[in-house]
Write a structure and sequence with these properties.
The protein is an alpha/beta fold. The chain has one domain: HUPs (Rossmann fold). It has 7 helices and 9 strands; from the N terminus they run E-E-E-E-H-E-H-E-H-E-H-H-E-E-H-H.
């Protein structure tokens, strides 16, 4: 199946909801590397890509909710992050944080991918897992809306993608309206108490302004986040 994200328009949705240029051929052999994994026999896998700078309690809640559908949630850190510069939290440190978070639940795994677009990540996952497990991409409402409504340059590109890979959508700060693809899109059941404004950006903003931030990150990584981001 060929799915060229941005073949004409020059752009497509990436792991963090932004856009960058390539043309993707789904199903090609691309490198997908596990860093942490405890489960081996699964029928449904949720791929959860992000920049994780740093991971937040909202990320953990979204991953937990994804387990209502999936047997395993694979936290994905792309080795190439479109529009994202690696700062104090370099790639190795982000992998370290995700490794610590994977200890929260035996069904949490961590992997890296070469590509950062949804289609690249899904293709690498399919190549790694083979044809049997059902795969889904986990994302927020805003990223799902961009993926569904983007002008790809020809009709049917998103329909082709969603026919092979489900979307597990976290409806934070709004309600995603999927249209005719509704049967391929699953809304995650998030528990109350996680505010819509909990984000990595908000954590960094609070750090910079000397405001409380520890409650926004998982306790498992609070100490290393404080040390690496230079918080006194």
């Amino acid at each position: 199946m060929r799915c060229c994200i941005g073949e004409e328009s020059g752009q497509g949705p990436d792991a963090d909801g932004g856009f960058r240029p390539p043309c993707i051929t789904m199903g090609v052999s691309l490198p997908f590397e596990f860093l942490h994994r405890k489960v081996l026999s699964v029928s449904r896998i949720a791929l959860f890509p992000g920049a994780y700078n740093p991971p937040t309690v909202a990320h953990v809640e979204i991953a937990r909710a994804a387990l209502d559908w999936a047997d395993e949630v694979v936290w994905i850190l792309p080795r190439a992050l479109p529009h994202k510069a690696l700062d104090a939290a370099d790639f190795a440190f982000r992998c370290q944080m995700l490794g610590q978070i994977s200890n929260i639940n035996d069904a949490f795994s961590v992997a890296t991918t070469a590509g950062g677009l949804f289609a690249e990540i899904a293709a690498e996952g399919r190549d790694a897992f083979g044809p049997s497990p059902e795969l889904a991409l986990v994302c927020g409402r805003d990223a799902a809306e961009r993926a569904a409504t983007w002008e790809y340059g020809r009709p049917g590109v998103f329909d082709e993608f969603i026919a092979e890979y489900r979307l597990l959508v976290a409806d934070r700060a709004g309600d995603f309206q999927p249209g005719h693809q509704a049967n391929r899109i699953i809304r995650l059941n998030l528990r109350p108490g996680i505010a819509a404004d909990v984000s990595s950006t908000e954590v960094r903003r609070r750090m910079e302004q000397g405001l409380p931030w520890e409650h926004l990150v998982p306790p498992a990584i609070a100490a290393v986040v404080r040390d690496r981001y230079g918080i006194n």
